[in-house]
Amino acid sequence: MKNSDSLIEIATRHQVYLERLKTQQARNFTLVLKDLEKAITEVLAPLSGRVDSLGKSQLNRVLKDLRTAQSAILLRNEAAFLTELRRIAGYEAEFEARALENVLKQNFAQKKIKIPAGEAAFSAAVKAPLSATGELLEPFIRKWSNNQVQGIDNAVRRAWSEGRTTQQLMQEIRGTKALKFKDGILRGTSRRQAEAVARTAVQHVASRARMSTWERNPDVVQRYKYIATLDGRTTVRCRSLDGQTFEVGRGPNPPIHINCRSTTVAVLEKEFEFLEEGQTRASKNGQVPANQTYYQWLKRQPRAFQNDVLGPTRGKLFREGGLSADRFAKMNLDRNFQPLTLDEMELKEPNAFARADV
Length: 358
Prior knowledge:
This protein is mostly helical. Helices cover 59% and strands 7% of the residues. The protein has helices at 7-30, 32-44, 56-105, 118-127, 137-161, 166-174, 185-215, 236-241, 294-299, 303-310, 312-320, 325-330, 342-348, 350-356; strands spanning 221-227, 245-247, 263-268, 280-283, 286-289.
């Protein structure tokens, strides 16, 4: 952190580093697929010919052996990942405290920020449901493991009922070389889902750990601001929440969807607000004022980019409906921060639709 950094600059830059960490953790989390493939192969390799040559009791024995072999590997993987998440929670809680202290001391506002213990920060993340799904962290991770076992179970049962060979079954599980094995259960569907679980879990732990720091320092932070990424890949929910402020513990917290890249930043109490004046935030095409929201930024982008982000109908409404960026943001979501359809949006702003002729 540089001495001239603002909280929003620190938060947006830190999110870039967090995305790299998420990539690393996703890579580590998916290494388990190699062990699973080996274990599955060892169980299925002794079978010969057609899978349907197995009797019902033999089939059940194979399924049981597959579940046992996979479950042992998956449990070890979950434990290792949770250990990493515990470490991340402690780091994020301390990083947020140091960021607050760094900004405060720039103007001689000396303030010792209380840092929650790493285990307490992790416990807060474990107890808080993910905004993305409503699930608790550990069941969210375990569900992927359970789905993985069930997916292999289903593949074997299908092969048995459809009279397929063991070789065909293994090809479904592994995929084909021609498609770089991405069409298989393990290296295709399972890998994509595992990466999404890892990225989403890391974001949840990081966000909740930072919130734990704010909760320990209510004299400095009682509200926070939602910060989306200013580029063309940001979802409608994150675009529309960007720049909105909420009371700590009483608002949406990233990740609000799977693979969410948004972050949050502390809003300082009034006596410290002057420290954030004149600051900037990053966008895909350079620095912009820190208080510029996603839709304010989008207003300045080319028509083609606006249509690419919003779609042609919403793009026309955005440009020609006579709506402010703030109003457009609010008409995109319901009270539970869920996206609205165009018909639902029209009920809220019929005049805007008439002006835009959409």
